[in-house]
Write a structure and sequence with these properties.
Beta-Lactamase; five-stranded mixed beta sheet; 11 strands; alpha+beta; Helix Hairpins; single chain; 53% helix
Length: 404
């Protein structure tokens, strides 16, 4: 494009210069020749001495009549066509007389056309040459970048100890880009290694004390305790069980690949819903609320037990915390479920923000950190599920999870 622009401007400049120079020189020559004819030949009553390619016309000389087509010409230089021939014409007025000198320029015009065709050919050749040269240079310049892009694209195993890329390239811009990628990849490898070590530590170090706590709670529940102490032991056991499930969920989210998200179901929706109803139903009723488990339609598909249990648990806990009176309902449908409450509802402008980490409603309830709905959103995204939120009339919220 640059070559086409420059060549086009250069060629156009040549054409303009040739035409302007030709007009200026032709004007000078015709004017000088017409002045000589008028001052010498015509003034002395002699016939004008003309070259074979030149014609003389005069309005006051009958032997040199001006054709009708020439009478409208303006003073000075002009170019006219007559019988497929090109003439340069110069018109001069002296008193009441009008004098015209015409010079045949057909040969010159033919030569000009040849010159302009040559200029056009050179322009086209320069564009084609620039395109070929630019293509070759671009491929040569882009070859290292293409090679680097292919090497980066195929480095999907980030934790493998692949050799660095920078030594394969010279110390230029591409080499600096390869070095920057090596540095970033190294940091990413270290981060992933720390994450894997952390998940391994969590799997080993947290599960053991949680099992100890759960075992102790089971032993204490068999002992003769006061109702108050028994309630505390039961609460500790539920908290330990919940923490165990959360640890399991976080480990799966950290380790599982997205292509494995929809595989490996071990529980039906009805089973998990019944389990969570037995767990949260008494707590909801203890707050003075009505709790219902409603089955609108059956669903025999199998889902990931840890994920489905965590989603249901968090939504029921959320309904418990944000409902002061009325009811909480868990409604099962084909391919999903709904959790409805008669609480305060969620303003429309906050319905997207409540799924962000550490974001809680305006009227905070419970001791959470605002991670429950964020975890629900993460699990649904990971599993390919959909979670929707809307308000109920006259008050309340509806969380709907589509599992298919």
């Amino acid at each position: 494009m640059m070559a086409m622009l420059l060549s086009g401007l250069f060629s156009l400049g040549i054409v303009v210069i040739v035409n302007s120079t030709e007009k200026r020189l032709a004007t000078q020559d015709l004017k000088r020749e017409l002045d000589i004819l008028l001052e010498h030949d015509i003034a002395q009553g002699e016939s004008p001495r003309l070259s074979p390619s030149t014609r003389f016309l005069a309005s006051n000389l009958p032997q040199y009549p001006i054709p009708e087509a020439m009478k409208g010409l303006k003073k000075g230089f002009s170019e006219v066509m007559e019988n497929d021939r090109t003439y340069y014409v110069y018109v001069k007025k002296v008193g009441s007389g009008r004098y015209i000198l015409m010079e045949d320029q057909s040969k010159l015009e033919n030569r000009e056309r040849l010159i302009f065709r040559g200029i056009l050919g050179c322009f086209l050749l320069s564009v084609v040459g620039a395109w070929l040269l630019g293509t070759l240079l671009a491929r040569k310049v882009m070859a290292p970048l293409t090679r680097l892009a292919n090497q980066v694209r195929h480095r999907d195993q980030l934790l493998t100890l692949a050799p660095p890329l920078a030594p394969e390239y010279p110390d230029d811009e591409v080499g600096q880009l390869a070095a920057a990628f090596d540095s970033t990849l190294g940091q990413l490898r270290r981060s992933l290694k720390r994450e894997r070590l952390f998940t391994s530590d969590v799997s080993h170090e947290l599960r053991t004390p949680l099992m100890v706590v759960q075992g102790a709670c089971e032993l204490l529940s068999e002992a003769r305790l006061s109702p108050q102490s028994g309630g505390l032991v039961a609460r500790i056991g539920r908290a330990a069980q919940e923490m165990h499930e959360l640890v399991q969920t976080f480990l799966i989210l950290a380790r599982a690949r997205h292509e494995e998200a929809a595989t490996g179901g071990s529980a039906t929706l009805a089973r998990v819903a019944e389990e969570q109803s037995q767990r949260w139903g008494p707590l909801i009723r203890a707050k003075g609320l009505d709790f219902e488990l409603i089955v609108e339609d059956s669903d025999n598909a199998s889902y990931n037990l840890s994920f489905l249990r965590t989603v249901l648990s968090n939504l029921l806990r959320n309904a418990l915390h944000y409902t002061e009176s009325g009811r909480v309902r868990l409604i099962l449908e084909s391919g999903g479920f709904r959790v409805e409450d008669s609480g305060m509802g969620i303003p429309e402008e906050q319905r997207e923000r409540i799924f962000q980490p550490f974001v809680r409603g305006e009227q905070v309830r419970g001791e959470g950190l605002g991670l429950g709905l964020s975890l629900v959103k993460r699990i649904c995204t990971h599993q390919g599920w959909q979670v929707q939120v809307s308000n109920l009339e006259p008050s309340g919220s509806r969380f709907r999870v589509l599992l298919k």
